Amino acid sequence: MAQESIADEIKWLEQKLEAKRHELGGAAESKPEKELVKDVIKEVALLPPPPVVPPVLAPTTDDDSDAKHIEEEKEHSVIVEDLVKDALTNGILHAVKMAGAFKNPHILDDFHDTLADKYYEKLLESRKLKQ
C-alpha cells in the first residue's frame, strides 16, 4: 500500500517537475535536475524560508558547546529520518505539517534537503530523470 502511495506521489512530482521546467523555459536547462527537484519539493511543501533566529549568547566552555551541538545534531538527524519515513508512507504534506510543528528552522531545512534528495533518488529509480 505504501509503495502505491509513493508511486502516485512520484508521478505527481514528475508532473510538477515538468511544469517547473516549462515555467523556467531555457533557464531550466542550465539548472541541474537535482536543484529543480529541490525547488519543486520546496514549492509543493510550501515550506516558508527559515526565520532568522538571533544567537543566544551564554557563557559556555568549548567542551560544553561541542557536546551540546553533537547531541542536538544526533537528535535532529533522528527527527529528520522519522519525518522522511512519514513522508514516504503518509505523504509529503502530512510530513511537512509534522515538521512545522517543531518550529525549528534547522530541522525544517535539514528535512527539506533530505526529502528532496530521497525523492530525487526515487525519481531516478523510476527512470524518469537522467543524472
Q: Work out the strand percent.
A: under 5%
- Mean pLDDT across every amino acid position: 79
Q: Runs with pLDDT <50, length 5+?
A: none
Shape: globular
| Radius of gyration from CA coordinates | 17 Å
How would you classify the helix and strand content by structural class? mainly alpha
Our measurement of the CA-to-CA distance between the termini, rounded to an integer number of angstroms, reads 28 Å
Describe the structure.
The protein has 131 residues and is mainly α. The protein has one domain (2-125). Helix content is 76%, strand content 0%. The protein is built from six helices and no strands. It has helices at residues 2-24, 27-30, 33-45, 62-90, 92-101, 105-125. Helix 4 packs across helix 6 (105-125). It is globular, with a radius of gyration of 17 Å. 18% of the residues are buried.
